[in-house]
Amino acid sequence: WYAGERGQEILRQVFEKMKEIAHRDEVEMNRDTYTHDMAMSFTSEGYKKWEVKFHRNFPVDGASVTNKSQAFQQTPYPIRGDASVEKVVGEIKHHITKYR
């Protein structure tokens, strides 16, 4: 989803949206070389650590959000896929801001 000119523009938009909820706009980005899933990690304004995994066929396949601040249970919260990047990213932001 992040390949090509259009994909790079979508990735840039998603990265900027994650910076909006990250403390000091600091977002780390990495890619799984086997699955090609993209992940972004950051600390929210509430000082909780989050990881958002964007599946290979994002936005259709959705994403998952994990609160990495929880010592025991780090169950990923699934974000339902949709054809609209804005809708999926909005759902991610809503989930994180609700629990930060």
Description:
The protein is globular. It has 100 residues and is α+β, with helices and mostly antiparallel strands. Strand 3 (49-54) and strand 4 (63-67) form a beta hairpin. It is built from two helices and five strands; from the N terminus they run H-E-E-E-E-E-H. It has a five-stranded antiparallel beta sheet. The protein has helices at 4-21, 85-99, and strands at residues 22-31, 38-44, 49-54, 63-67, 77-79. The longest helix has 18 residues, at 4-21.
Element layout with pairings:
Layout: H1 4-21, E1 22-31, E2 38-44, E3 49-54, E4 63-67, E5 77-79, H2 85-99
Antiparallel strand pairs: 1-2, 2-3, 3-4, 4-5
Gyration radius, rounded: 13 Å
* Class from secondary-structure proportions: alpha+beta
User: Which percent range describes the beta-strand content?
Assistant: 25-35%
Q: Find the count of extended strands (DSSP E, 2+ residues).
A: 5
- SSE succession: HEEEEEH
Q: Strand order across the biggest sheet? A: 1-2-3-4-5
Query: Low-confidence parts, pLDDT < 50 over ≥5 residues?
Result: none
Q: Mean pLDDT score, rounded?
A: 92
Helix content: 25-40%
